Amino acid sequence: MKQLLPLLLLLSAILTVSAQQTQKPVLHGKNWMAITGKPLAATAGAITFQKGGNAVDAACTMLAATCTMWDVLSWGGETQALIYNPKTKKVIAINALGVAPTGATPEFFKSKGYNFPPEQGPLAATTPGTAGGLMHMLANYGTLSLEEVLAPAMELAAGYPIEAQTANSIERGKDKIKQWPYSKKVFLTHPGQEREAPMAGEIFVQQDLLQTLTKLVEAERAALKKGKSRKEAIMAAYDRFYTGDIAKEFVRGSKEQGGLITMKDLANWKVLEEEPLVTNYKGVDVYKLQQWTQGPTMLQALNILENFDLQSMGYNSSRYIHTLYQSMNLAFADRDFYYGDPYFAPQEPMKGLLSKDYAKQRAALIHLDKNDAKIGPGDPYPFEGKKNPYLKLLKERGFELDTTRRNFAPTHDIRNGSSMVEYQDRLWRGTTTIEAADKEGWVVSITPSGGWLPACIAGNTGIGMSQRMQSFVLDEQLNPFNVVAPGKRPRVTLTPSMALKDGKPYLSFAVQGGDTQDQNLLQFFLNVVEFGMNVQQASEAANFNTNQLWLSLGGTKTEDRQPKPGHILLHDSTPETVRTELKKMGYTLTFDDRTSGPINALYFDWKHNSLWGGSSNHGEDYGIGW
Questions:
Q1: Which residues pair with 604 in a beta bridge?
Q2: 3-state SS string over 411-457?
């Protein structure tokens, strides 16, 4: 035994060192940190910090840059953000999600043969929210002018060397792009040639977008000349976008191509500041946006998981994976039925859904040895002293739908078989994320999206319209809280995250990837809190995805969106013993070397008064610290 002990200690040390290795280095900074989905955009954030801007200024600069670079989003999309204000020591929630336009009703879409609103084109568009969200955040919490913050984006619009990822995405989507004249004009720089999209490294010019951004700066300058304050000048640019000549051209271009958005829709839309939702997990306060996002699913899952000893199970053991999978299924079943726009009736039962006692009730439903394919929404109403008005509707559904969906042929590798690849694309569908922090204490986490390629551009604005209408339902039986209506916000997947410990910022994190976002963020959070990983290790760590949920993005047919009970995506490195045990539990396994969208994150080291940054090894995401 004495001879064996040194060998065991040596093996333990080797494994510890191995576990700490990452493909990208962890970032360190003392003064600030800027992380986002494109290297040039991260550089734009760094430039803003060097100008003396705070984290909000830098985040807005990165947002403008990523929109301009079509990092799976455009200026016509939507912005969701959490901001930690060091002056008030509170987390602020920013709701800059667009709304359904005039005429967007279930009857309208059903008359066109849709079971869900379309996923592309002008009829998929909610009103643009990103421009307004950026200007609202900058005006209220930033320090620089709009002109200073937009300068990098304007330089990019004047021409930048386009990356292969975006250029190739344009080429793949060129047949759809050709349906829309203004998109064709912008994106297909070599019409009639074999490759009509730009080449990687080619200087990509967006003259119409540059003109739109210039108009915003002109509005700000004119207001300042009239003696208006910094905030008033920025909001003058806001008004020009939503009520002035930019709005008129946007509406004209949308209507020309069959869209529904009106001038009144744009004028009535406003950015909203909200109280974030929060739960405490083992002494850490975790903040999410409200139920117009899927963010509360992570809070619900954490409440459920508090009832289990995760550390004793071991990281990514079969029991650990099974327990998380079941917890997420319970949370997503509630999401799929109870989440929606809180500004429209009926009122979502969020107090009950986030109750710790409700979580205990849900945790008790988990079978320790098998997947529950029949799991459905729970009844949170008694936990807020009310009677569930939807018991009849739930009974009519009967949850038998979950047990009859066997028309999806199992596959052992999502890279084989087009049907599974197409499904996984809908599940993962990406965007970008933005993380920023400064030495003054401002922290920003943003998950913007919308207007991704192939995008329908609205007239001569250079602005790609949102595709977020597809996240509504047309039938209240699926979700009575998320039925499309004019002026209403769809329940989206976009979900920035922030965590405080002992009243101070602890983690700020976000990820792209459709319905997998809160799955991956949950696992990232547990990697840090339960298993002691740093933010880079946690962002690169192998995780898994559940497919036992209704897709929020995808085709217009019901079968395109239905859950796949027991289907699980695992990392290629998953040991054979774990695979075998999960199969015995009733899981259908799929594998890939990528099991997460790019996670970007910040950790606040109060012991040394420094910042740690993590940026996933997947994709183009990049960070800079100082």
A1: 611
A2: CCCCCCCHHHHHHHHHHHCCCCCEEEEECCCCEEEECCECCCCCCCE
Compute the distance between CA of residue 620 and CA of residue 66 in angstroms, rounded to an integer: 12
| Model pLDDT, residue 50 | 97
User: What pLDDT sits at residue 555?
Assistant: 84
Supply the DSSP string of 175-210, one letter for each residue. Answer: HHHTTSHHHHHHH-SSTTSSS-SPPTT-EE--HHHH
In 3-state terms, what secondary structure has residue 592? Answer: strand
**Encoded tokens for 496:** 């920035």
Query: Whole-prediction pTM value?
Result: 0.93
Residue in 604, 438, 611, 509 with CA at minimum distance from that of residue 85? 438
Q: What is the pLDDT of residue 620?
A: 87
Pairing of strands 443-446, 497-501: unpaired
Task: List C-alpha distances in Å: 147 to 189, 237, 442.
Answer: 29, 10, 21
pLDDT at 411: 30
Amino acid (one-letter) located at 119: E
Helix (H, G, I), strand (E, B) or coil at 408: coil
- The CB density around residue 160, as the number of other CB atoms within 10 Å, is 19
Q: Residue 157 phi/psi, 5° resolution?
A: -65, -35
Q: What is the pLDDT of residue 413?
A: 36
**pLDDT tens across 475-504, in order?**
999 999 999 999 999 999 999 999 999 999
Q: Within its chain, how far is the Cα of 162 from the centroid?
A: 24
497: DSSP letter: E
Cβ–Cβ < 8 Å for 491, 111: no
CA-nearest of 335, 398, 361 to 552 is 335
Run of H or E including 286: strand 284-288
| Cα distance between residue 333 and residue 297, in whole Å | 9
pLDDT tens for 166-194 read: 999 999 999 999 999 999 999 999 999 99
CA 13 to chain centre: 37
Bridge partners for 457 per DSSP? 464
Could you give the CA distance from residue 621 to residue 614 in angstroms, rounded to a whole number?
A: 10
Residue type, 387: K
> 3-state DSSP call for residue 96?
strand
Measured in degrees and rounded to the nearest 5, phi and psi for residue 48 equal: -65, -40
Quick one: pLDDT at residue 532?
97
CA distances from 15 to 11, 170, 278, 281 (A): 6, 44, 36, 29
455 burial type by CB count under 10 A (0-12 exposed, 13-18 middle, 19+ buried): buried
Q: What's the CA gap between 438 and 31, in Å, rounded?
A: 6
Residues of the chain with pLDDT under 50: 1-18, 400-418, 423-428
Residue-by-residue DSSP string for 212-261:
HHHHHHHHHHHHHHTT--HHHHHHHHHHHHHHSHHHHHHHHHHHHTT---
* Amino acid 403: pLDDT: 28
Judge residue 494's burial from the number of C-beta atoms within 10 Å of its C-beta, 0-12 exposed, 13-18 middle, 19 or more buried: buried
